[in-house]
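Consider the following assembly input.
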Amino acid sequence: DIQMTQSPSSLSASVGDRVTITCRASQTIATYLNWYQHRPGIAPKLLIYAASTLQSGVPSRFSGSGSGTDFTLTISRLQPEDFASYYCQQTYSTPWTFGRGTKVEV
Amino acid sequence: EAQLVESGGGLVQTGGSLRLSCTVSGFTFSSHWMHWVRQAPGKGLVWVSRIHSDGSRTTYADSVKGRFTISRDNAKNTLFLEMNSLRAEDTAVYYCARDGLNFRAFDMWGQGTMVTVSS
């Protein structure tokens, strides 16, 4: 199975901050990398797919980059509704695997 | 508006069985691969299983292989997860998720249903 190592596991930030989360795959996954946001009690939400493509309706302050094994999710200016957990996921080969998540908190 | 609604969760004893359902609306269910994903209390998301749009192919995580069965009824717009021989470590919120048509990502999720396995 492909292991996804996400860092940091948590971070403290303030509204307006620039936030960067990284994800590393245990083997190359080309650009089969997705990012999700998950807030408690709310269905997870797709933010970025194929490493850098913004899902329809997602604010442009979210961006993704990377290919191969190293990937990054960036939130350019953190908003109050962005305090949540973020997960990377590889869909290069089954089983699709997620990173352990990054909790963005105040 | 497109949506996915899970049901069927609850409290079950170790070794017991449960059948989850995911009823969808607002999109052509029969065009999409569908998945189940779970989240144990305080833990992250874990992919469980997937099924082809016509039900012909299925894949499972090793942790549930041989115990869980994914299926679908395209006429009733419903996805299922039959769970047998349940263990304490199966305790989680179970989400159904839709696979995007043109890319490998879960572009729509349900709100989840809680499964608690206790002795």
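The mean pLDDT of chain B is 96. Ask yourself how this observation constrains the way the partners meet.
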